[in-house]
Amino acid sequence: GAIGFAAAMKIAEKSRNSEAKRLAKLRDELAEFLREEFGAALKINSCAKNKLPNVLNVSLENLDGERAVFALDLAGVEVSTGSACAANSGRRSHVLTAIGLNAEMADGSLRVSLGSATTAEEIARAKPIFAGVLREQLKFGSQSSQNLRGGKVS
Hints:
Elements: H1 2-38, E1 42-44, E2 55-60, H2 65-74, H3 94-98, H4 103-107, E3 109-113, H5 120-138, H6 143-149
Antiparallel strand pairs: 1-2, 2-3
């Protein structure tokens, strides 16, 4: 038991750095694609240096993050909205507001989590899905912007 666990830990430690680099490369590739697609409307919600290699959190102006999560899921891409700290709380992420995002940008955030099974091919397949679905979702606007304009929110 303990000897096997120790051996597994040594193997995991050896592969941890290479796996972190692989995931960071995939994360950065997707981030760059989204930057190119959406320009200044896209905000990357992380520090340039101190960020997890497997997480990309972005916000888009005028996007309803929850609606986008459902639309992406229907298209075969699984993401979440907000921050992990606020997952399933039904409330705006206090983490995203603490880093200075206004209500609309916090509500328009998407979190992409990559794992050991994530491949470069999956990221390549996901890119056009992201672009198409998010462009379509931007046509609807965000609940925050609808509230500000007095629009009806369903």
